[in-house]
Amino acid sequence: MELYDVMRTAFSAREYTDEPVPDKLLYRILDNSRFASSGGNRQGWKVIVVRKKESKQKIAELAVPGAKRYAAQRIAGENPFNTIDPSSVDDETIQNTPPSPKLNMTYVDAPVVLVVCVDLKVVASMDRDLDRVGVVSGASIYPFVWNILLSARNEGFGGRITTIPITREKELQEYFRIPGHFAVSAILTIGKPAKLLTKLSRKPVSEFTMVEFFDGKNL
After folding, report:
1. What is the pLDDT of residues 122-144, one digit of tens each?
2. What is the CATH number of the domain that holds 40?
């Protein structure tokens, strides 16, 4: 596929066929994805390939608490897990809100799940001392993560980035024997999409691009 076609059709696939993702194909996807940039070219990523059903079920289980909170906040009209606006949803409401199967059971149904981690000892967290949640460390891992999804799309497969199970990162680290200085950055589901989407809805460039200043004219 042409690069721009891949970029414009790499959608978040939530449902997959039973077609397997062979190790040879997965290796080719990762082999091309590893050319993503990272701070100092330190390439601090590690990938755990998860195929066993019990391990995928464990991820789904750990996704439930976060999925409950996500659903409860959406029902309340909030943007879930944002760090600016305090949530009005209490713990009892969260506990009584059923999680959407799309938010946790997709791990069990996907042919393969990738747990992507990054070594916090080698990333440059330039925003570590700012009075807000840190995001800059992601510059050394998410280009690699997105390359995986683009590569999968190029191979006729698909996937999506998920993060909800990471609300239980310590349990993920214990189960998969991940050292404490590695952050779980993303959990990817990969497979042959049950339905292929080719027309994605996105905001136009003029809506998010300004000239010179944040309040400058639109490009």
Report:
1. 999 999 999 999 999 999 999 99
2. 3.40.109.10
